[in-house]
UniProtKB/TrEMBL annotation:
Pfam families: AMP-binding, AMP-binding_C
Domain AMP-dependent synthetase/ligase: 31-422
Gene3D superfamilies for the chain: 3.30.300.30, N-terminal domain of ligase-like
Domain called AMP-binding enzyme C-terminal: residue spans: 473-548
Protein name: Long-chain-fatty-acid--CoA ligase
PROSITE patterns tied to this protein: AMP_BINDING (PS00455)
InterPro entries: AMP-bd_C, AMP-bd_C_sf, AMP-binding_CS, AMP-dep_synth/lig_dom, ANL_N_sf, ATP-dep_AMP-bd_enzyme
Gene Ontology MF: a single term: ligase activity, forming carbon-sulfur bonds
UniProt keyword list: Ligase
Amino acid sequence: MATDRPALPLVYPAGVPRELTVPDEPLTAALEHSAQTWPDRVAVDFLGGTTTYRQLADKVARGAQALLDLGVQAGDRVALALPNCTAHVVAFYAVLRIGAVVVEHNPTYTCDELAHQLADSGATAAIVWEKTVPALLAGQSQTSVRTVVAVDLSADLPWAARFALRLPVAKARRTRAAMRGPVPADVPLWHELVGRTAPIDPAHPAPAPTDVAALQYTGGTTGTPKGAILTHHNLVANAVQGHLWTAAVPGTEVVYGVLPFFHAFGLTLCLSYTMRVGATLVAFPNFDPALVLAAQRRRPGTFLPAVPPMLDRLVTAAENAGADLTSFTYAISGAMALPAKTAARWEQATQGLVVEGYGMTETSPVALGNPLGPDRRPGALGLPFPGTDIRIVDPEDPDVDAAPGERGELLIHGPQVFQGYWGRPEETAEQLLPGGWLRTGDIVTIVDGYVVLVDRIKEMIVTGGFKVYPSQVENHLRGMPGVQDVAVVGIPGGDLGEKVVAAVVMAPGAKPVDLDAVRAWCEQRLARYALPKQLVIVTELPRSQVGKVLRRLVREHVLTLAPTV
């Protein structure tokens, strides 16, 4: 399979580069450069606790030596299970500095979820939130973890806030209980290790660009999570691509870290992009609109990577509080489709822009995006990032390109494409084709020169021999009066193969709809074979950590129910 750029009818506006030169350096080089260029600029702001680039580089150097003292070596996998905080940034770069491999985990995982991923990666050390320590220790015997270090989240707060937590009042007790947890006496504390350790010798070997930097576990929305192997080169490439795309002025941006750093989207936009452009990262332990608005008053943001529900909730909170969001010049939305209504609300509230991006864990993660300008196309994935090539192929035979204007599976080739799945050569061979082309499993087409998502192959419904794309049905149903949200899935349907089922969340105060009304609404734009044959009213839809609807779980729920309508 050749890697020559296919002759696709893509339209690139002026100012959007097609080519890319990736610096021959590890991911840690960007932090070192920013510390030299802007030593006194605030690198991280965590609930008012600030750390300059000079201080951050020093903490990373001390954390790196602390890891060496604990016996961690280059190539070892080190698990991080932390909320967003300054310590997360320090630990991330400290692990990378010694050539070890970061393995990010959700700090709220259960014992079984955490033990499975730890065992799969072969991690030998773990730096985890105090409240995660019990879950890790309970399953430690199933893993290779021999060193556990705990992180006191409150240690990253400003001095006054730390002092307030010790006050004998109810609010302080609630906040302390939310941030801290019991830790056995033999488990060392990260901040104490970093505070008492001398910085690493600057001559200590840095990782090579080709070295593995991270094992990033896929979301597991369609099966068991797998560890995507990402090199320093992959992550550096995606940070550089993001810089070119946003045209950020180095040393000026204030990026709001509301996305979890343990997710690929948050990792790249908050942990690596920010360091490359010398931005101030305002980190939030969880997404709370009130916390965001408080930070906006203290340190106004300029750039917000987010998912659509976050944008909606922030605008609503700002409207209710009379808060000003106009400092945000741009936002990038990902992980799910950006509704036109959400985009319009955000742009009206900020007088800035919001555009969609597209990617996967396997692409570090961003591969396509809408231009940040008047050429953006709401509802489209956009255009391949600089240095990124795409093909649209027959899903049954990826060697055959789809005819012009036809739908097909999206293939991606570029410097951000991963190296394969950790310990899973067969699944790697299925996903990563000869020549480095990644099968995305997404069906797309090109409309007016922009790539548009149709749906995922694994979630496509085949009914009566016809193919139904759930997102098309969902997009139409979201415009139905009274409907707040919807997920469409297929379940066994006898002679039909599958039948289309709509799980609907009603808007507050709205009267529940019935199947006849839903079908009548859908008939306006959809073929009869795509009309839902069953309706389920639910109070909420299951979502991933970044808010993506988990259709697999919706389908499992529907299968447990008798037809309700």
